[in-house]
Amino acid sequence: MLAAFAIIVMASCSSNKYHTTRVQNLDFGQYKTYGWLPPVDSLSKDYFSNDIAKHNIMTTANQEIEQRGLTYTKENPDLLFRYVAIVNNKSRLVYGSPYGYGWGWGGPWGWYRPWGYYGYYSPNYPVGKERIRYGHIILEAVDRNTKSVVWQARGTTEVDNPEKAINGLPKMINGIMKQYPLKTSK
């Protein structure tokens, strides 16, 4: 039973997912300085549009960028970074079991199973949909000379409350910056 509880708890925890794209065959070592463009106006539903969220994003991003050998400057930086924060609603299917166990038959661990299958949980058909909210942070690097995006990475996570989402931003930015073509100099 304890193992079943651990699986349920682990399944309920969402993890960050990262995706990246870049200009292929570009030497990112040529960039020595960086600056910031204003954040892109986004649909963040007030999750990431407050001072604390902006501070968490900018402080963590600056640390990560500088660990990759770039120096911040306001005058003619080689790269210009910007971020976009988006929160949107999606729906996902909720699955049930034809055997009637789960919350309706003795709790989530199925203490009472009139048809057997003790310790076995097999969700196998959709019984409805639930609405969930996903937060996305997109970080882009723009070559100042060509004015084109040379790198972009996105971090996505399920968010259930604004405070938890804002407090998780440093971890999200760290994960996004791991996608950057240059590794840390440490």
Automatic annotation (TrEMBL):
It comes from Sphingobacterium litopenaei. It comes from the Bacteria. It holds the Pfam family DUF4136. Gene3D superfamilies: 3.30.160.670. This is DUF4136 domain-containing protein. Residues 23-181 form the DUF4136 domain. InterPro entries: DUF4136.
